[in-house]
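Xanthine dehydrogenase family protein subunit M structure dump, as promised
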Amino acid sequence: MKTFDYQRATSAGEAAAVAADAATKFIAGGTNLLDLMKLQVETPSRLVDITRLPLKTIEADGEGLRIGALVSNSDLAADERIRRDYAVLARALLSGASGQLRNKATTGGNLLQRTRCGYFYETSARCNKREPGSGCDGRDGFNRILAILGTSDHCIATHPSDMAVAMRLLDAEVLTLKADGTERAIPIAELHRLPGKTPHVETVLEAGELITAIRLPAPLAGRHLYRKVRDRASYAFALFSVAAVVRMAEGRMADVRLAFGGIGTVPWRNRGVEEILLGEEPGEVVFARAADLLLSDAQGFGDNDFKIDLVRRTLPAVLADAARGGA
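structure tokens r here:
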């Protein structure tokens, strides 16, 4: 690990202003950043500690909730309102990492965690996300865990967060404070950027822009599920995951919300997949049509070709399970 300066922020405004320097990073739980620093994938010259900032509460916000950026994953998953009204989020959180990591990982940090692509972590490998313009060894290398949707010639790295998938389904808003002191609300659908030609630019956040909270809208009625397929039962990233909320009425799917992890370069959602299911009776034919639409732009790269079949099997099973919980 390279040497760095350390500063403890006393206010969100101070933290954002100091971090406007591109060589400065915020640190809270540090569950991802410290690993990257040890491997010299990340080499900030200064860390700004934000753990003392008053961003650790979960409060009612109109019909929804406002979640402070420093709320730990464990505390968020255990909150009675989250478990009751946003069960898909609680289940996604509990499927991620280990208990010890969830105790440290923060809500804001979880949204910004970086890919677990092995070529990103291996500094001798070519990786456009780590070193722009160097190439992408993942496309022709061992790419079993990598993305099949949203890829480009420059990057096929998968976004790793389970929490972000559920937040994407819930249409959360990300509240931030910029280095110049202005605030903004970013729909989570607009937070993460597809890799395109600039995979190292992962979000729309500006230098020094600090996530202060996440706002959840009113709860969704229906059966909440989070299904995660992985190599082992715990502490493993998704090969494919489905966040689903399905509300049934008179034997038909009256409302369907879906988001996906493990297959996209960003937390993935396709509104067309939801629309094709609305008003339909649950069944193998319509579920297969939904899977076909989701995969219409999918591309495997060899080792991860199996994900296409995995989606075709898993999505119908999740939808059938969700539909059984309705009226």
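The two ends are 57 Å apart (CA to CA).
lmk if u need the other ones
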